[in-house]
Amino acid sequence: MANVDRREFLRLVGAGGVGAGAGFMLAESIKHPVEYLIPYPVPPEEFSPGIATWYNSVCGMCPAGCGISVRTREGRAKKIEGNPLHPVNQGRLCALGQAGLQVLYNPDRLTGPMIQNGERGDDAFVKATWEDGLSRTAERLAAARRDGIYVLSQGVRGHLANLFELFMGELGSDRLLHYDFAHPHPLYAANKRFFGEHQLPYYDIRNTRYLLSFGADYLTNWLSPVHHSLGFGHSRQGNDSSSNDGVRGRFVQIEPRMSISGAAADEWIPARPGTEGFLALGIAHHIVADGRYAGDDASLWRTALAGWSSGRVAGLTGVSEGTISRLAREFARAEPGLAIGGGAAGNHTNGVDTLVAVNALNYLVGNIGKAGGVVFNPDPVTGGSAIDRQANYRTMQNLIENARDGNIDVLIVNNTNPAFTLPRASGFREALAAIPTIVSLSSFMDETTLMADVLLPSHTYLEAWGDDMPQPGVGFPVGAISQPVVAPLYNSRSTGDIILGLVGKLGFNEAIPWTSMEDFLKDGWREIYERGSREPGDFDSFWRDVLVSGVWGENARRGGSVVIAPGVIEGMAVSAPRFSGESGEYPFILHAYLSTAMYDGRGANLPWMQELPDPMTSIVYGTWVEMNPATANEMGLADGDLVRVTSEKGSIEAPVVLFPAIMPDVVAMPIGQGHDALGRYARNRGANPIEILAPETESASGNLATSATRVALVATGRRAAPVKTGGESRQLGRGIVQSTGSRSAPAGHSAKLNSIPIIVESAVVESA
Amino acid sequence: MGVSIVPTLKVLKPAARFVVVATVGIVAGYFANAAFFPGTRPEQPIAFSHRIHAGDNEIPCLYCHVQARRSISAGVPSVNKCMGCHLEVAANRPQVRLLANYWENREPISWVKVHDLPDFVHFTHKRHVAAGIECQTCHGPVETMEVVSREAPMKMGLCLDCHRKNEVQHGIDCWTCHK
Amino acid sequence: MSILDRFVSGWREFRKDGYYEEFDYAWTMTIDLDRCTGCGACVTACQAENNIPIVGESAIDKGREMQWIRIERYWEGEYPNAKLNFIPMLCQQCDAAPCETVCPVTATYHNQDGLNAQVYNRCIGTRSCAVYCPYTVRYFNFTDHHWDAPLEQQLNPDVTVREKGVMEKCTFCVQRIRQAKDHAKDDGRRRVRDGEVQPACVQSCPSEAMIFGDRKDASSRVSKSMNDERAYRVLGELNTRPSVIYLKKVDADAD
Fold first, then answer.
1. How far apart (Å, rounded) are the C-alpha atoms in residues A458 and C162?
2. A699, A349 in Cβ contact below 8 A?
3. What residue spans of A409-494 are helical by DSSP H?
4. For range A325-346, the mean pLDDT
5. Residue numbers of chain B with a pLDDT score lower than 50
6. What is the residue-averaged pLDDT of chain A?
7. Where are the beta strands (DSSP E) in chain C?
8. Which ipTM score applies to this complex?
9. Measured between beta carbons, which residues in chain C are less than 8 angstroms from residue B160?
10. Distance, CA of A263 to CA of A553 (rounded, Å)
């Protein structure tokens, strides 16, 4: 080695030291951070760490009321499955149901009571205690006029509905409204008019051989989509040769824009919006005129339907005469065929007439009360009053007028969002300004809750006690208890407990003696238990059984003969649909539709739902306008061009998407985006087509005619291409999706490319 | 070409010594960390001695680590398990008083994890206990330890050796542990 | 033997026809396209079960979506005779998987259950497997993922949370298969029974379009379903031998 003087030596030592330090820190930096093992002071009885605990409950994401089984680990909900024992969904669950976990663990949940500290509508809420929040609310309620107290809730059933009724009774107010955007008001009205029925019937899609759907997107959001999907699957391919002679069900969908149910159908028939009722009458005319109906009242029918020949109907609907008579023939021959209606067909100015005509079809083919047809439901075991509380658009207009006239002192809102789901033209948001006290029980800061003065946030359905009797039922009484699957995350309370808290403050304890929703529920179920002939002392095991299995039912079906209301046949008619806006100025009819992911807008704050590609277009995170490609071509519009959609009542912007299965003068937009509140995932994204809907209503039911708005489309010159996950939307001969011409592939039908033999591997491996 | 690296090397030659010494230093420092601060014997909030409990008093492992037989994680006993004895036994000792303090406040004890596997390893105690493997096989002679220390290297080689030797069904399939 | 001969004979041994008949189980899935409605319940169920991250709009715009099962939609025809067909596409667990041949570190291989295994901690992120896959069912983690609190409380502890730089794909819910085998062992060494294990997608499907099971068990539902006359394999001509078998949609009006 060369000479190393002292300075050199010191420098070398320094270099070595720095190196050692660096090496030490390197080793330190790649070390795994310390983890801790933290046991419980007292271990909970309900679970063991590392082993999952399952709870059965009821889904609260839409009104279908499916039963769920929730897998929890260490007190946290991990996965929601369908409850196999529940007759509505039989172990299956839709995408929105799966996303319930993101409602529970949503980062934008309201975590406790709050009081508005600024102007109405400011985001200036400050935290408060329950004592404070409940006291304030009770004060205002006590000081209010009896008729000045309005409670506006999402649709609730079961015992919570009963509790609301008791509460309103004590308050001396009858102004209890359940408001759900998607509630099928015209369907209820049509069943009332035709059959005199208060409940919706059970539509037995499972056992039908021919489903004629007038606008009802039964696979996505009409009544009970999971149940219908089960039925669809079975009707298609569940009937093997050992049952029901192996007939594959045929599905026909009549609507101006192909929905999911339209895509699943064997035949999609576009009919002019609002003319579906004429088509139904035309088919009915043919069934009777061709002698396929042999009832005692056949001549009455013949007279009533005389004017609805296929020639006339073809002119009105745009559906050819040949198709009309063919549909009539096929439907009548199906044995059984089933006709259902809803969606755009029901939500029109002639919606109830249309659905009455659809009922007529069922009557004429004799499927009432039979398998594969229309089966009447018994009354729900409890909570039945809820049906009458459902508020349609006319009721909401009354509420708005009353607010404007200063007749409302206190408005309590429970998990419903009319500020988003009512058209701007209704004036709902403005009317709120005239209400002195607004209290919201909602779990999220949605558009309506933002306008409240006091926030008393409720638990999400996974944290609360409750129960549900699904409506429509499945032909026999069914009930399920909704139990908490996790301890509440925040300082919220269940809706029932909030009401009972107010009961306490207002001194209604004599009439309403319960102090918790769980007690109220249990007492209510004691009554249900005692309906059957059981030992009174065994209620506790009954309660436990219902909780563990997740469902209760009674073998009590409706019997009796079918009687249609007098005068119905003679009065069979469908009025012409009315639209807002002249066709010259507003050449397109706006078809605003519900999707699985967004439903009525409630899915927008769930990231899984934002990221679920729309099945028809594969678009995520946005709103768009679907147009017929030929029409778009004529207008010089390309996929992704931003257009302004204007009705008589307002305008919104959205990009164009070319959609092959929509009528040339119809444009369609999904509902759900366009929020300006409801959290980080929902805000300031897309547009809300409900905003620009015209307030046309159906005269009989008072229902909002959502498909009666005409719009104009104007290019803005800008582009805003929607984000899609799907690539090329045509197969281009790749044979990815293959179809065969019949239920089973005829010999020699398979393409040569696919001639690889399919191997059944047996458990026994033969030696070579 | 007329370019050569040699002049550069000549210029750098004086620094060569420093580079060599620094490199030796880095390596030495790295291994010194591993040797002197391996983290295998962390200090615990309470000086619990397995020698006294599992060794002298011969309390079986599964009496406290109840979950090991039924679950993926063996867990540590809950505070009330300890208090089951220590409400009376040795109640005056300082460490037991510490424990009683936790119990009175119903406060959980943050034990430092000694045998920590990465998150992508899904080890299940249930199967190993059911196979009759002694806890000491991986955890070392715990009943002699005053402070729990990590005896086994906790690397995949340990698992694979045992799985191969005992011919565990699908034992060397990656997805058995790394699902 | 020369090195080349040894290599060739070893390769032949590895890829011989009988190699995969030594499967312990042969997990197979059939999807009936005549029942599938394109609703997307399977997509969300999978996301919930497998800790699939939310990648966000801009990532999807770059083609970086993260869905182990996706619904593909294909239009046919023009208005008014347009038809729309849906097909769920997930990792086909090919017995002759192209992706397995290319991985330089064998982070993906075929295991004894007939599954195409992806080992996250071994993957170095070359992404060649995604290129080789003809079904485009492999997804890469281009970023580390973040869950806005408390959404991370929902994460499934039985499934690894993947970091930036690793490939991932459908595993036929191997954690459920492992758990089913675990329970079978608890019951004393019996085989997993038909229907005992369902991947999340199969369990959720509202129209019961998907069937899952062991095709080595001749009495299982899936064995019967895969031998339906309508059965076919997507891109079957590529000879990847997928374990996902589709049942052709029925066009009732075709001649």
1. 35
2. yes
3. 418-421, 428-432
4. 94
5. none
6. 91
7. 27-32, 70-76, 83-89, 108-110, 116-118, 139-140, 167-168, 210-214, 231-232, 244-247, 249-250
8. 0.93
9. none
10. 34
Report whether B142 contacts B50 (CB < 8 A). Answer: yes
Residues of C in contact with B130 (CB under 8 A): 185-186
- What are chain A's domains? 114-178+385-468+478-553 (3.40.50.740), 185-375 (3.40.228.10), 588-724 (2.40.40.20)
Q: Which residues of chain C from 60 to 119 reach within 8 Å of chain B, CB to CB?
A: 109, 111-112, 115, 117, 119
> What's the whole-number average pLDDT of chain B?
90
pLDDT given at position C16: 60
* CA-based nearest residue to A376, from A143, A559, A583, A224: A559
Q: How far apart are CA A432 and CA C130, in angstroms?
A: 55
pLDDT tens for A366-385 read: 999 999 999 999 888 888 88
Question: Of A433, A410, A486, A461, which Cα lies nearest the Cα of A146?
Answer: A410
Could you tell me which residue, A498 or A742, shows the higher pLDDT? Answer: A498
* pLDDT score at A587: 97
Residue A95: which of C39, C72, C208 has the nearest Cβ?
C39
Q: What is the pLDDT of residues A381-423, one digit of tens each?
A: 888 888 899 999 999 999 999 999 999 999 999 999 999 999 9
* Distance (Å, whole) CA A63 – CA A183: 9
Q: Is the pLDDT of residue A118 over 80?
A: yes
Q: How confident is the model at residue A471 (pLDDT cuts 50, 70, 90)?
A: confident
- Asked if C251 lies within 8 A of A739 by C-beta distance, the reply is yes
Structure-token pair, residue A494: 């269940």
Burial (0-12, 13-18, 19+ Cβ within 10 Å), C215: buried
User: In sequence order, what are the residues at sequence separation of 6 or more whose Cβ sits closer than 8 angstroms to the Cβ of residue B15?
Assistant: none
Give A737-755 as a DSSP string.
S-EESSSSPPTT-S-GGG-
Regions of chain C short of the pLDDT cut 70? 1, 13-21, 255
- pLDDT of amino acid A537: 65
Task: Report yes or no: A669 and A655 within 8 Å, Cβ to Cβ.
Answer: no
Q: Does A259 touch chain C (CB under 8 A)?
A: no
Chain A residues whose CB is inside 8 A of the B46 CB are: none
A667-692 per-residue burial string, b: 16 or more CB within 10 A, e: under 16: bbbbbbbbbebbbebbbebbbbbbbb
Q: Is the pLDDT of residue A762 over 90?
A: no
Architecture of the C24-247 domain: 2-Layer Sandwich (3.30)
Strands annotated E in C16-65:
27-32
A70 to chain B nearest CA, in Å? 20
Give the per-residue pLDDT at C9.
84
CB spacing of B80 vs A20 below 8 angstroms:
no
Provide, rounded to the nearest whole percent, the portion of chain B with pLDDT above 90: 64
Report CB contact under 8 Å: C178, B179.
yes
Question: Rounded to an integer, what distance in angstroms lies between the CA atom of residue A376 and that of residue A555?
Answer: 14
Tokens coding A527: 């009554």
Q: Does C185 touch chain B (CB under 8 A)?
A: yes
Neighbouring residues of A3: CB distance < 8 A, sequence distance ≥ 6: none
d(CA A614, CA A621): 9
Contact at 8 Å (CB) between A526 and A161? no
The reply to whether residue C71 touches residue A615, judged by beta carbons under 8 angstroms, is yes
Q: Nearest by CB to B22, which of A18, A24, A40?
A: A18
Tell me if residue C167 falls in helix, strand or coil. Answer: strand
Q: What is the pLDDT of residue A538?
A: 86
| Residues in Cβ contact with A365 at an 8 Å cutoff, skipping those fewer than 6 apart | A287, A292, A293, A331, A332, A334, A335, A336, A337, A339, A373
Q: How high is the pLDDT of residue C19?
A: 53
For range A257-284, the mean pLDDT: 96
Lowest mean pLDDT among A192-196, A654-658, C185-189: C185-189
Q: Is A359 helix (H, G, I), strand (E, B) or coil?
A: helix
